[in-house]
Amino acid sequence: MTNVKKENLPTKICATCGKPFTWRKKWEKVWDEVKYCSERCRREKSGKEGGGA
Fold first, then answer.
1. C-beta neighbour count of 37 within 10 angstroms
2. Phi, psi dihedrals of residue 51, rounded to the nearest 5°
3. Which tens digits make up the pLDDT trace of 14-44?
4. Secondary structure (DSSP) of 2-52
5. What distance in Å separates the CA atoms of residue 30 and residue 18, rounded to the nearest whole number?
6. What's the first-to-final CA gap in the chain, in angstroms?
7. CA distances for 11 relative to 1, 23, 37, 48, 53, angstroms
8. Which has the closest alpha carbon to 21: 5, 31, 47?
9. DSSP 8-state class, residue 1
10. N or C: which end of the chain has fewer CB within 10 A?
11. Cβ–Cβ contacts within 10 Å for residue 45, how many?
12. Pairing relation of β-strands 11-13 and 20-22?
């Protein structure tokens, strides 16, 4: 994805907070598997889904 303008990058909706987030270089090889916008949302996923802790 070289030389792509920022507004043309793919986006997804975070599974935890529901906010949109855009493609990042570090996610280049795993973009199809990315579900969360941040480490914080990834860590909080279990608390919201499981209804505990």
1. 20
2. 70, 20
3. 999 999 999 999 999 999 999 999 999 999 9
4. TT--GGGS-EEE-TTT--EEE--GGGTTTGGG---SSHHHHHHHHHHHH--
5. 20
6. 40
7. 14, 6, 10, 23, 31
8. 31
9. -
10. C
11. 14
12. antiparallel
Contact call for residues 38 and 12 (beta carbons, < 8 A): no
**Res. 12: pLDDT tops 50:** yes
**Amino acid occupying residue 33:** E
Regarding predicted confidence, which is higher, 48 or 11? 11
Residue 16 CB neighbour total at 10 angstroms: 19
Q: Give residue 36's identity as a one-letter amino acid code.
A: Y
Contacts 24+ apart (CB under 8 A), 37-40: 38/14
Q: Which amino acid is at 48?
A: K
